[in-house]
Amino acid sequence: MTIYRDRIEQKLSAALSPQTLVIEDESHLHAGHAGAHPDGGDETHFKVRIVSDVFEGENRVARQRRVYALLSDELNERVHALSLTTQTPAESKSGASP
Amino acid sequence: MTDNPAITQIKADVEANDVVLFMKGSPMFPQCGFSAAVVQILSQLEVKFKGVDVLADDTVRQGVKEFSNWPTVPQLYVKGEFVGGCDIVREMAESGELEDLFKDKEVATA
Asked: Which of B34, B86, B88 sits opposite A61 (nearest CB)?
């Protein structure tokens, strides 16, 4: 199933015009634990790496709030956890974090 | 102001304790890998903190999301200020920023 992955990709692509967007479904790592979906399926835990100019001048909390706000429907409906890496193109090049 | 008692309690905890971690499970027995990771980081830095188990009270679980404008748990507060969730805490620990933050804010160590 990639319904949520596709939705996440579409929303983040549209809103952030990312230079890099990598979305990994890590739900299998959390199977059976409290946050896993009762149907036992996937798409509950995602790891997302985003490189975008939009993050310029924002601290980590502001960046992640921005991403969470874009994905609030997905978080409410099914997605239990997002592991986020949010960088500007310059930070991505230097390997630094904000 | 709020008339939600859960949020009043969250606010009181955050104001009364230098370091508060809203988490799933207790510091001794975390119920979630992300919460466990933050507990481990705080323990390594020998920081005294209050752990609030959001699984113990669903109104707190929902309330803290609203209070922080942050949809996931764990959530770390230092001297009343929201620091972030697991990813941010981990990044800050790796870069040394977290230790600096505790020093700057004169947080007591165990």
From this structure: B88
A59 interface with B at CB cutoff 8 Å: no
CB contact under 8 A, B82 and A33: no
Residue A80 — pLDDT band, cuts 50, 70, 90? confident
Q: What is the ipTM of this complex?
A: 0.85
What is the spatial distance between Cα A83 and Cα A20, in angstroms, rounded to a whole number?
16
CA B16-B21-B22 angle, 5° bins: 105
What CATH number does residue B75 fall under? 3.40.30.10
Identify all chain B residues contacting A97, using CB atoms and an 8 Å cutoff.
91, 95
- If pLDDT is split at 50, 70 and 90, which confidence band does A92 have? very high
Residues spanned by the domain of B80: 5-104
User: pLDDT digit string (tens) for B19-30?
Assistant: 999 999 999 999
Residues comprising chain A, all counted: 98
A68 touches B at CB < 8 Å: yes
Total domains in chain B come to 1
Would residue B109 count as lying in a domain? no
Strand partners, A59: none
